[in-house]
Structure formats: structure tokens, C-alpha cells
Fold:
Amino acid sequence: MTKHFTLITGGSGGHVFPAVSLYEELQSQGYRASIIVDQRGKRYIPDTIKNATEIPIYRLFPPFGKLFYPFSLMIALLRCILLFIINRPKAVVGFGGYTTIPGIAAAKILFIPIILHEGNSFLGQANRFLQPWAKKIALSFKKTDFAHHEDATLTGLPLRKLISDNIAKYIPPSEEKMLNILVIGGSQGAGIFARLIPDAVRTLPKYKQKRLNIRHQCRIEMVEIANTAYEDLECTVDMQPFFDDMPKEYNQAHLVISRSGSSSLFELAAFKMPSILIPFAASAEGDQAKNAAQFDEKGACWLFSEREVNTAQIGAILSEALDSPDILLQKSKSMAKMHIANSSKKLAQLVVSI
Structure:
């Protein structure tokens, strides 16, 4: 009988995307795989994946609020136990987030081997709690705080096949040519960029503004504000609430301005993309800032705090990139060193060897 593996993921894109990547890799190697996801993460599951089960967990459930949370966890635990009895997975792989706890607990009860994957530069709360139950832990960063497991392996963060199969060589702009800038906000959006980026462009003289071609991902509710902010500028702007073809966007860009969720960071590293990173200040446990700090330590990005960044800082980088494109090439080379190749295959190898 073909081995079956169950992957359990939390509700953010940073949790779901690596799980999807592992699912694709296991399927390509001839194994059976299934995904358990909560109601938030289901939107990140591609339509091509049919073997995904949504098990909702409600932390806030009117009118009882947090009182319903323990019951929600218990219901999820029982559903996972039933699923595991039916599917009989060879191993269960958790990708972090509080929604993985019932599934991993179910695996523990049924004596199913457990593997945890951590996408951040430190073990999140759920993985810290579950760490003693795991047979193996897979890490995305060479330096991962709170990872004390005796069998921790660096695999990197698996990238979706759509991403990893479409990476082109980075080519910086030549002097006097257009500078293509990609502004992306991550799964939680980046309303701050709707004001910050136009105001930063405004600090440049008109002749430099004309050399900027900006592709700006903007939340629907912020589009009107951003359009108004760009109105008096000489740059070319294409604003979209969502980009359907991210490999195409990366391959056409010379510079990215982005949040620093783990999936975004490792996608940028794979594309060797010079980046201005502004971590989401309210991210859980400050994970975005901590992740980006490791990239900044290697000179792989320009890093600014959301609470302290100003238009003059961003404008100065844009101006320098226009004058001396070689600085983009240097950042690209440093970013390339952060990439861990074949992460999906490395994680799959770890999982099937259990």
C-alpha cells in the first residue's frame, strides 16, 4: 500500500504555502498526501488540491467569545482522530499555528510519528508547545531560536511549485533605463504602502520620477487613497488588489518593496531580488521583524521599522538605484546567499524516511 502522509497547517499564507509545496512534492514522488486546514487557511489551498479537509477552530465565537475556544479545540481533536483512523497516515507533519495543536495531539494519542516544520527564525508558540512530541523538526533558518530538539534539520522553507519552476536570472536595469518596482503587501496587506511609496517618489525630481515603473499591490479599500497620492507624479503606476502571476512579477522587477513574512522572504531569496523590507509591526511575536533581521545581517536587504520609516529614506534608495544600478546587483548577490535550494525535496526526504 502506498504510504499516506497528513499535513496540518495554520491559517496564514506563511503556514499554508509550505504545506502545499510539500503536498505537491510528495504527490510527485508517488506518495499519497492530504491536508488539514482551518477556515482561514482554506483560501490559500489551490483548487487543484482535492484532498484538503477544513476543520474550523473558533477563538472568538459570538455570543460566547473565548469560552467556546476549548470546545472548538476538542471537536477538532475528535475529528482528527477519526480522520487518522480512516486514512492511517504514516506520519503527520505540522506547519505551525494554534490550529495544528488538535491534529498533532490526535497523532500523539494514536502513536503516529510527528514532524514539525518551522518557517520562522524562532519556534512559534504552537511548535514550542509541541516540540517534545515531535520525532523530527525541520527548520527554515540556520539560526532558529527555541529549537532545542535533538533531531532538528535545516531544510529551508519549501516554495510552491508555481514559484520554484519559474525563476529567471536577475538582471539589474541599465543606467538611464526604467526602474521596475514591485510593491507587495503580503497576505495581511500593507495599507502603509499606499501613502509611503507615493510620498517617497515625490521626493525625487521629475526626471527621475519618469524613470520609475511601479506595480503596486494595494488592498481594495486603499486603492482610492493610493490613486489620489500618485496623481501628481510622473512615474508609471499599475495598481492591483492581487497579482495572479507572481513569478512573472518577480522576474520583471528590479526592486521589491515588501513585508517580510517567511514565505515572501524565501521567494525573494529564490529570485535573488533586491528588496526594501518593512515588517508588519503587529505580526505575531514580531516574527516578521525577527526573520528580516537575519536577512539584514547578511546585507541582503534594506530593512526599516514600520513605526520609524520615512519617505526620505525610501526616496534616497530609489534615487541611488536610479543613479547606480550596481547597488541592486550587490544586494541581489547577497540575497542569493539566503536561498536554500531544493527545500521541498529536502523536507519530503525527511518525512518519508521516518
